[in-house]
Amino acid sequence: MYWEWATLTGSIGNGSDKFERSSVLTSLPPESAKEVVGAVVRHVVSTLGISQPPSPSSFDSDVEVEWCLQVVCYGLSLPLADHEIIKDCVSIYCEWLSCLAPIPKISVPKPVVDRPDFYARKMINQLYHLFLPRKGEVWPFLYRTDLAQDTINRQAILCHRVLRILQNVIKASESLEPATWSTCLLFLIAINDAILSPPSITGDIGDQLCDRVLSVLFEVWLLACAKSFPSPTLWKTLRESCQCFRHRSNLFDQWNRINLLLTGRVLNIMYGPEYVKHLEDDGNLVPANMSDDCVVQTWYRFLHTIGNPVDLTQPTIISQTQNFLQYAISSDAVVDPCQHPCLSVLPSIFHKSMAGIAGMVDAFLGLPPRPMMMEGTIPEHSSPTTTIPSPVAPMRRLAKSFSVATSTSNVSKGNPRTSLLGITTGRSKDTSSIPTLSHSQSNSIQSVQSSGSMGAPSKSFIPSTRMEIGRPKVNSILHLFGPWLFESALTCSEPKHDGEVRRTSRSSSVPAALPESIDIPHAITIDKYYQGRAEALGILCRIFCSKKTGEDILPSYLARFYIAVHKGLKETRSEVLVSILSNSPDLFRVDLEGVTVLMPAIVESLEAVLPTKDALRNDLRQSSIQLLLSMISLPFHFLNVPIKEVLDKNSYSTTFIQLKPRLANLLTNALQVETDSVNIQMLLGGLMMFVSDTAAFEELEKSSVGTGTESPTNLFLSDSAHALFIRTTYLVCHRLISTWKTDLPVSIAALELLNGLGRIGIKADPLECRRTVKWVCDFIIHQCSRPPPSHSKDLHSSIVAAFQCQTTWLTHHPYLLDDKETLHTVLEVVEFGISGTKSQSKPGEPVKMKDEKDLKPVSLRVRDAAEALLAVIFEQVGRYAPCSGVKTSPSVDEYTVLSQVHSQETLTKTEIISNYFRYFVIDHSILVSLFEEALGNDQDPQPTVTMVLRVPTGRHAWTLQLRHLPRNKGKLSGNNPTGRPLPMTVVGTRYDDIQHRYFPESADRIVFCKADKAIPPLDFFNSESGDQDALEQSRLSMILENQIRLEKSVENMIREETDESYPNLRTEAQAPPVSQEFQTARLLLSNLGFITVQDGSDFSSLPKLVAIDSRLPDFMEYLETLDSTSCRTCDTVHVFYVRNGQKCPQEILSNVQSRANVHPHFVEFLLSLGWPVNVSEHEGWTGNINTSWKRLSHRSSTLRGHTEQKCNATLQDDGAQSGLTQKETDFHGGSLYNGDSFLYWSDVASEIAFIVPTTAGQQCGDAAVWDVGDASPDSPEGLHMTSTNDKNKSKFPKHIVEHGEDRSKLKKALNGKLIDTKIFVVWLESFEDSFHFPSSALMSSAVTGLENELVKDPSLIIFIHALKNGLFRIRLAGESLRMGLPTPLVDGMVVSRRTLGNLVRQTALNMARRKRLENDSFQPPHVRRKFKIQEMATKFATSLSCPEFYTQFFQSPHGSSHEHYDGLSSTTTVHHV
Q: Contact at 8 Å (CB) between 277 and 407?
């Protein structure tokens, strides 16, 4: 830089200033001169006001002052034994230097006041003697034994005083001549050279003053740059002088300190005043009035003051100074200057210089100050808890530094602000002279231990710091620091030529320039500089990882970087490997060209780090895991593409697909030994992504590879999707039960992983699936069985998540319940969750029935989760179709049922409910609606009842018939006679003259006795009886006559019938007429055991059955609210597309209008999220409560055509309003799903809507309300529309059947019970746009109708950035939850195109579930419905006596006549659900 300029290095001590520093008293004998000095200075000191008031000086002429200066000059050069005289001389000059101040002191001579700069220069030059060793004491190690330590301390005190006075005078002076500035700067350079250039010895004057003289030199130099910029000659002199004492560690402390302050000022000039904020500046060391050009020039020149820091790795260069050569000549113990003991600290100084450069690079990148890493390491023979003390003693004053403005809040609270960089500059002793012996370091990863200086590990997936968006380009930083860093990064690497490095007798690497006979100290061999090399590699990794989207890096820089990193990864020193891995988590996700050449070496390094137990810092493991997560998508992406060797371009080491087994082993092995909660969650997310990608790849491969063609993955059958599935489930379940059960975030993440594995369409072994279900059941039992003190909300949250996991596995693998043991295990866990105990605790114990147990569940949340699982087992398992979702609430309701038998006349819904249906509440949880007439298409007159069941898990419709014979046994009808046998032709002989007797003939021959005559005959009364007896006899005779006459008529009639021919239709046997009147509601409830004859008379308080009065005015409203309460959770995700550099919400919303404005894969990604659905044809969750859970009409012909026409008209209207033609609508960029249509996905327990907001987007039907009653004659199908906004009445299709005011009531009823989790998915063209995404401004375009005024920002934002290689980088942002951020997506993960949509959807669902688990007021959907049914049972129950209760079953519902049932239709369809 200054090669054309002369230097003053040779004259600063004995050059041109020699005459000014000499005295005339040197011509006198020493004793005489000493007496003269003593007499003069005592007189002058008496006028200074030290012991008495000051008085004016008696020196009135220049000659007198010149003579006095000669005397004082000689006094300053006296031996240190004359301390008092030297002290008085220092006092005189300290007082007289006030001539440079605006107001000089009274004791300053008048000639000095008149010519302040002239005399100040003389005094300053003469003060040089104070800092020099005295005659006969040239070398500090010689006078250390002659003078007491307190003498040296006295000299140091006087030097401190002079430096302080000089610095204060220069600061206070308003106008100094350029010559005075030059004199001051040369004086400071000279005293630094005199004190610091000799080899350092403990306790010498250099040890006492090192830090102080350097700080004054640099601080005064900064003042000179602001007021009188030094000439190039002075800059070159400063640089050469500083290079002479680079063996002093304090030099680099001050160099780092000043460079950091100047770098902060330069960055504020370049990028604005808020780019860097100064924490402390030691009293504004950099003058505020310094111009911008001056700051930049000063910064760049100071940066190169010490030369090339890599020279510190070569002791021969550092020791090639005059002082070191003189020491080697005069000492018998040192053969070569590089053998001096003070050079043993060069490795530490080299590390410190690299740390200073790291601080400056971090400032350029916008990173906060970092603690200096690896101050000490563990020797091979030491215990794991001990560390080698640093050869540099602790400083008394910590360094001043700055922090990035955007990251100030992220500074560790436990560390002082001034120690953020770990670079100290205290005014303490320079202990670099201590010849500390360096122990050999451990070459294994286990030697690196975590310590407090490394910083606390992050407890979030989202990094706490980020680089500044407006940071400089990589090329710019490398132009500035690249030569030093690349050379430092290759310092300790293996030599390319045999002559560069060779082995000595100690088997240490030494520079080749040394003679072979020289025995280099072990502390300064080249391999001891590994810490500085590690720091340099870490800086390079941070620089290259700071590459911005679309930025180009010179190929030469990339090549040198890859070579340095590759050699560093092969290094046996663990510190180098640790530095690379810790500082390069973004290496594979910033689009570095050709970075995949490092993949084999990095995988090998990760294999040495991640599977290691309890040996590494947590932040290192976290960075290593981040690297791993960015690589696991590469094998399937590049397949058989070869990976070139870094140093041999013609050879190939391996292919990408061959690394897949190693990556799989890394994931599983790291998960086995990892103990940090955050790291475990990251690994679980990566494992889920790896298994999903493998399964998706194999699925695509099956469809693309023909029969008989070998698949590329067939070579690695052990790492197929099936094998990974088994390994993952076994590992996760085992760790979940053994280790992770007490860690809520980890257990939730593990259950999310199992949940995701259950959804993957892998044909797994049923035995493994049953084992997984059993393990999860064991986890639930273990968590529930923990002692009461261990029970907490977090514990119960993990249990609820486990029940949800079981739901997923059973619905996707229904065959599991075919196994008797699995069914028993699952139902036992459900029983345990509901009741709190098992029916049979241990085998052999008696079974405890349900009615014998006390229901004491672990918590209400656990009971609700168990009940939900039980409902799924009975209602959904075996019915769920994962390919297209499930409708757990069919559209069949009372109106649909009645439409099967009702005539074309219009009825209101209130009339339908009140006049045709009976309502009962069973078990306080089931609302039953009974319709007692047969449906229109049923020609079999059996007792029929149609039920609409409203249960906590949904709405179901059933049609039941009472049959005494199966359907296949035929039908009985009144029109067909009952079959009978044919008559016989031979009937036998008929005897009509036979008289039948009551007694046999033998009875007449019996002789009567007196007893037989005790009852007289009737003839006896004719003559002897009275009138009364005659009257009775007459009556009896009449009865007998009538009976005889009747019997004869019957006999005659029988005779007539027998005379007629066969067959006789009049006497033929016929079946009775079929009954058309049934009390089917009574039959059904009686057969189910809900109504019996009881003694009680009040049936409103029955525990199992409650009759409901549907005629009450509010019943209709409550029923609609119940139908509008979903039985599944509902979530909404809003998707945005951000083009490069966009910040305005309106611009972001308008991007999706055309496919030309979005990435080619964006629309494909949208379609992978869910199924396209039109709001007008959807009855589930639509993303807005105003249009969700509506009942669609059952008319599928005329009404659907009418609806489609309306929707098409609506889309055309929307297109016209937004300026889109039909052609542009077909080539939309996602705007089609702005709410009128959307992307829908659901499973048995969840619904999620994906909406792409646009500038003109408005959800269809958000203001429309519908009713089935009060229809005008022109309304089709008896439907009538009313609207809260008449202006939009014609816009919406006539299919929605709820009132707008009912929606407001529904929202009010659900207030606080539904969790509105705002989730954004943002597709980025530039990754840097994720840091200024206007999420708060876009909240207004993400309206769901369930907004909470306190929520101002989304709970989760998933940023997706498409890399050049076809993969996608993920960034997660949002609020921090107690149980952590959701998986499987992890911040920094790189995913493939195959799995992107699936993983985004799973992450959004898991985030919503975690939010619900954390919310205390959240009620599960089935609980909300159950409470609503109970509320209806209480509010609308009828109070009936026993006769009234039974009588109602024999009457039409609420007294309605049967004339409504006359118009039966035989062409309608029966709804069997």
A: no
Distance CA 134, CA 140 (A): 10
Pairwise CA distance, residues 1373 & 1384, whole Å:
14
Task: Provide the 10 A C-beta neighbour count for residue 1450.
Answer: 9
In whole angstroms, what separates CA 62 from the centre of its chain? 80
Query: Stretch 1193-1220: mean pLDDT, rounded?
Result: 41
Q: Is the pLDDT of residue 934 over 50?
A: yes
Question: With the CA atoms of 143, 147, 149 and 154 taken in that order, what torsion angle do they form, in degrees rounded to the nearest 10?
Answer: -110
Q: How far apart are CA 298 and CA 221, in angstroms?
A: 9
- Measured CA to CA, the distance from residue 275 to residue 295 in angstroms comes to 16
Torsion of CA 640, 645, 649, 654, to 10 degrees: -20
SS3 245: coil
Q: How many CB atoms lie within 10 A of CB 1170?
A: 21
How far is the C-alpha of 888 from the C-alpha of 441, rounded, in Å?
66
- Non-local CB neighbours of 1145 within 8 Å, separated by 6+ positions: 1334, 1337, 1338, 1341
- pLDDT tens digits, one per residue of 261-295: 899 889 988 888 888 765 555 557 888 888 999 99
Express as a percent the part of the chain with pLDDT over 70.
Answer: 72
| DSSP-assigned letters across all residues of 485-550 | HHHHHTTTSPPSSTTTEEE-TTS-EEETTS-TT----GGGSGGGGHHHHHHHHHHHHHHHHTPPTT
Q: Which DSSP string do the residues of 291-306 spell out, in sequence order?
A: -HHHHHHHHHHHHTTT
With contact defined as beta carbons under 8 Å apart, do 327 and 343 qualify?
no
Q: Which of 938, 949, 873 is nearest to 901 (CA)?
A: 938
How far apart (Å, rounded) are the C-alpha atoms in residues 1161 and 1159?
5
> Which one, of 534, 532, 536, 421, lies nearest residue 478 by Cα?
536
Q: What is the predicted pLDDT for the residue at 938? A: 59
Residue 1368 to residue 1346: CA distance in whole angstroms: 32
Helix (H, G, I), strand (E, B) or coil at 1152: helix
Coil, strand or helix at 652: strand
Mean of pLDDT over the chain: 76
pLDDT tens, residue by residue, 651-693: 667 889 999 999 999 999 999 998 889 999 999 999 999 999 9
In DSSP notation, 722-743 reads: HHHHHHHHHHHHHHHHHTGGG-
The whole-angstrom separation of Cα 1418 and Cα 1168 is: 30
Q: pLDDT tens-digit profile of 761-782?
A: 787 788 889 999 999 999 999 9
How many other CB atoms are found less than 10 A from the CB of residue 654? 14
Cis bond before residue 1063 (omega within 30° of 0): yes
d(Cα 695, Cα 169) in Å, to the nearest integer?
A: 77
Q: What's the rounded mean pLDDT across residues 581-593?
A: 91
pLDDT, greater one: 728 or 1075 = 728
The residue whose two tokens read 């918590």 is 859
End-to-end CA distance of the chain: 89
895 close to 909: Cβ distance less than 8 angstroms: yes
Alpha-carbon dihedral 1385, 1386, 1390, 1394, rounded to 10 degrees: -10
Distance, CA of 1285 to CA of 1264 (rounded, Å): 7
Judge whether residue 1330 has pLDDT over 60. yes
The pLDDT value recorded for residue 1361 is 95
The per-residue pLDDT for range 690-749, each reduced to its tens digit, is 999 999 998 888 776 654 444 444 434 567 888 899 999 999 999 999 989 888 899 999
Q: Alpha-carbon torsion 711, 716, 717, 721, what sign?
A: negative
| Whether residue 92 has pLDDT greater than 80 | yes
pLDDT attached to residue 452: 32
| Side-chain half-sphere exposure of 1405, counting CA atoms within 13 A | 28
